[in-house]
Write a structure and sequence with these properties.
The complex is a heterodimer of chains A (304) and B (486). Chain A is rod-shaped, with a radius of gyration of 45 Å. Chain A has three domains: 97 residues, no CATH class; 32 residues; 138 residues, Rieske Iron-sulfur Protein (3-layer Sandwich), CATH 2.102.10.10. Chain A has four helices and 22 strands. In chain A, the strands form six sheets. In chain A, strands 1, 2, 3, 4, 5, 6, 7 and 8 form an eight-stranded mixed β-sheet that branches. A four-stranded antiparallel β-sheet of chain A has the order 17-18-19-20, with no helix packed on it. Chain A has a three-stranded antiparallel β-sheet with strand order 9-22-21, with no helix packed on it. By secondary structure, chain A is of the alpha+beta class. Chain B is mainly alpha-helical. Chain B has two domains: 328 residues, Cytochrome Bc1 Complex, Chain C; 123 residues, Cytochrome c-like domain (Cytochrome Bc1 Complex, Chain D, domain 2). Chain B has a two-stranded antiparallel sheet with strand order 1-2. In chain B, helix 3 crosses helix 11, helix 6 packs antiparallel against helix 9 and helix 18 packs across helix 21. About 2% of the residues of chain B have low confidence. The chains are: A alpha+beta (304), B mainly alpha (486).
Chain lengths: 304, 486
């Protein structure tokens, strides 16, 4: 039979008080002691529950020794003990929250010790995670910033292009090595055989004429070539735009940006004119450097 | 700032209470380094998840690009060797710590009442970890991966009645290929990690319900008096050990980056398949004559491990005595010793068998080097960096592939090197289609000379043939001086 709270406690000679709390050993998960509130002075003492403890119906706890022995038993100080969750520890004990206490670990009273181990653990955590930050960052960004591919790509035979000042959409295939495999990508560009007037009109400024490496080194200048090639992507948000033969203008179907034949923006949301590409004539073929520029920005910033 | 956020959350969900519940777990007898292994396993699992996710940024689970993508990770991507290295060594470390953890629980009798369920879930976790090792082994799709997994799948195939279905299910058909890789991939990165997370959560929950077992000896009153909370001292000890594990994983990855053999080739008959080291014992078991034949194989590969795990599962029910001291439980402790000794013996035999497939012979190597640079005239087409300059004063020709690392190639690692090289020398075009290398007969090499040549190829990166080198160089010098005179 279990000891219950409020049970009367008797020694062999006379009654002494009642059970006010139960003490649990977290190691054995058994009740090891009980707290008895003495009738005489209301003092609480910790009494071991052992072979000399007998539980009788009533309920009543009988201590099989004389009352004098209680004098040697320690007083109950609440601060030495902590409440434990009954359900976690002693489902067989039939007691309620707050009735069962366990010894508060002596070592955990020392706050500076706790603080030391707390910071030491954090320092070790930092020693494990911080050295990984840079490698993981480098690992993830590895393929992000590749150098430009400045190879010349054939667009088609120059004599196949229509008469001056009428643009034509040319398709070309690129096979870049992407990471671990060769990929085949189809791309388009608008090519125009340009009249001297148009050439003059287009190649007004440096950005249209001079092409540079990422580090600012010039790699090509569109000079003495009577062809103009525009990147097939609208500078607004990268849509493929079309040529409107009736009105002689380029129209982007996505957000209705409209450009003149010389690439200038007529209307619409595009932030800049059409992007000219480096172009040359070699063996009767029109060749370009397959550059791409960041969409949505005023400046012409090369990304591929 | 952080305080304000903490307080705000605490007001709403009693964060403090939750925290106390998590951290104020009393440990009978106090914190100890003996209790760090479970936490270390959790730590490595977390590392495996992180490095595994990172590898998926580049890995392609298809037979035509898996191998290339791993090579890309290893050779191109910054710190790819580190990420894959931690993952590779982490898998071995997990098996090692698992064995240590389980052995400790076994020796300390911590599987006994009321912790039976913790033990059982732990055994399930062990099987998930083994499954992760097995499925992850295939993913790089190199020779080792392919052949190791094919053998593993065949093992599943010998189970009576359902074996054929099981093997087909794993392969995604009749042969190991496109779908096998897909299946192993999804099992490795989704099914098993999720199972592991669930089971590990359950394991911890059950553990916290039952409480730590504490030392196997000592007076309960004494242990109760000396108890400490999990936080902060045990947390500190756990993290010290985690740091050691972490340093070991990084160090191992740096010194021995995980290898990537040549791409899987189902036609490479000279390749001797070998599983990961923790399967070596059972691999060797299957070589024993008593486990030959269909039924023998079933007994060796399924029944014996099955009985072993069955015994472990039923352990808490067979051994219901309260005694936890390992020295007072002679049957259990003796059984553990027998188990470890037999595992080590089987692994030792497996390793020595592997070594026997190609053994070093200094004399043969010296003879082989002579043939390489004189009669065989191999240096006309092949380069052995370093050695060429030392012996003939100039690098070898570039017509054939360089042989500098020939000793390190896959065939060497798992035996079969000798056989493969001899076959190749006899008829190069047969093993390497399109090769223009002349067959050995055309050069006039005898069988013994070929064997010597292969020993040289297998040894030269190890600095052999050692002492014979000086004498040989002198001989070569006088020979060339003599040749130059007339």
């Amino acid at each position: 039979m279990d000891i219950q709270l409020k049970s009367r406690v008797k020694c062999i000679d006379r009654p002494v008080g009642e059970v006010s709390r139960l003490i649990l050993s977290q190691t054995t998960r058994e009740i090891t002691d009980m707290v008895v509130r003495l009738d005489a002075n209301g003092r609480e003492i910790v009494v071991p529950v052992d072979g000399n403890t007998s539980v009788r119906p009533g309920p009543e706890v009988v201590l099989l020794y004389p009352v004098d022995r209680l004098e040697g038993m320690p007083g109950f100080r609440r601060g030495d003990w902590e409440e434990v969750e009954v359900a976690e520890f002693a489902p067989h004990l039939h007691v309620h929250q707050g009735e069962v206490l366990a010894k508060f670990p002596e070592a955990e009273r020392d706050l500076s010790r706790r603080r030391f181990f707390f910071w030491a653990s954090n320092a070790i955590g930092a020693l494990i995670t911080l050295p990984l930050v840079w490698p993981v960052f480098k690992y993830l960004i590895f393929p992000l910033y590749k150098g430009f591919d400045n190879a010349w790509v054939r667009l088609g035979k120059a004599d196949r292009l229509p008469a001056a000042d009428s643009p034509v959409l040319l398709e070309f295939t690129r096979t870049p090595k992407e990471a671990y495999m060769v990929n085949t990508v189809k791309k388009t560009a608008w090519a125009v055989k340009a009249s001297p007037d148009l050439l003059k009109d287009v190649y007004k400024g440096d950005p249209e004429r001079v092409f540079k490496e990422a580090d600012g080194q010039p790699i090509w200048e569109n000079k003495g070539v009577e062809y103009i090639v525009y990147s097939g992507k609208c500078p607004h948000l990268g849509c493929a735009y079309r040529w409107d033969e009736t009105d002689k203008r380029f129209i982007c179907p996505c957000h209705l940006s409209i450009f003149k034949l010389n690439g200038e923006l007529v209307s619409g949301p595009a932030p800049r004119r059409l992007d000219t590409l480096p172009v040359r004539l070699a063996d009767g073929q029109v060749e370009i450097i397959d550059a791409e520029y960041k969409a949505g920005e005023h400046g012409k910033k090369r990304i591929v | 700032m952080l305080d304000i956020v903490y307080k705000w959350i605490d007001e709403r969900i009693n964060l403090k209470g939750l925290q106390n519940k998590m951290l104020n777990e009393p440990i009978p007898g106090g914190a100890r380094y003996a209790y760090v292994f479970g936490s270390a396993l959790l730590f490595i699992f977390a590392m495996q998840i992180v490095t595994g996710i990172l590898m998926m940024f580049y890995y392609a689970p298809t037979v035509d690009h898996a191998w290339q993508s791993i090579r890309y990770i290893m050779e191109d991507v910054d710190y790819g060797w580190l990420i894959r290295g931690i993952h590779h060594w982490g898998s071995s470390a997990m098996v090692v710590l698992l064995v240590v953890h389980a052995t400790q629980v076994f020796l300390w009798g911590a599987y006994k009442k009321p912790r039976e369920m913790v033990w059982i879930v732990g055994l399930l976790l062990a099987q998930v970890v083994i499954g992760l090792g097995f499925t992850g082994y295939l993913l790089p799709w190199d020779q080792k991966a392919y052949w190791g997994s094919v053998v593993g799948i065949e093992v599943a195939g010998v189970v009576p009645v359902i074996g054929d279905f099981l093997a087909r299910f794993l392969k995604g058909g009749t042969s190991a290929g496109v779908l096998t890789l897909n299946r192993f991939f999804v099992i490795h990165v989704m099914i098993l990690p999720l199972s592991l997370m669930g089971l590990a959560g359950l394991h911890l929950f059950l553990f916290r319900k039952a409480g730590p077992a504490g030392p196997y000896k000592g007076e309960p009153a004494e242990l109760e008096r000396k108890k400490e909370f999990f936080f902060p001292k045990q947390v500190y000890k756990d993290s010290v050990f985690m740091l050691m594990v972490f340093a070991a994983l990084v160090g191992l990855s740096y010194v021995w980056p995980p290898e990537l053999m040549s791409k899987a080739n189902p036609a490479a008959s000279a390749f001797d398949p070998e599983p990961e080291w923790y399967f070596l014992a059972i691999f060797q078991l299957l070589r024993l004559p008593i486990f030959a034949g269909q039924w023998g194989e079933f007994v060796g590969a399924i029944v014996v491990p099955g009985l072993f795990f069955g015994l472990l599962f039923s352990l808490p029910f067979l051994d219901t005595r309260k005694e936890r001291h390992p020295l007072k439980r002679p049957i259990a402790t003796g059984g553990l010793v027998v188990f470890f000794v037999s595992m080590l013996v089987l692994m030792g035999i497996a390793v020595s068998t592997r070594e026997a497939l190609f053994h070093h012979d200094e004399k043969l190597s010296a003879l082989g080097m002579e043939i390489y640079y004189t009669k065989g005239n191999c240096a006309a087409c092949h380069v052995i960096a370093g050695l060429d300059e030392e012996i003939r004063g100039a690098p070898g020709g570039a017509i054939g592939p360089a042989l500098t690392d020939e000793a390190d190639v896959d065939k060497r690692q798992v035996g079969g090197f000798l056989e493969w090289q001899i076959m190749h020398l006899k008829d190069p075009a047969k093993l390497s289609p399109g090769s223009i290398m002349p067959p050995a007969a055309a050069v006039g090499l005898t069988e013994n000379e070929m064997i010597a040549l292969v020993h040289f190829l297998g040894d030269h990166t190890k600095g052999l043939p050692g002492k014979g080198m000086e004498a040989f160089k002198k001989k070569l010098e006088t020979a060339s001086a003599a040749g130059a005179k007339p």
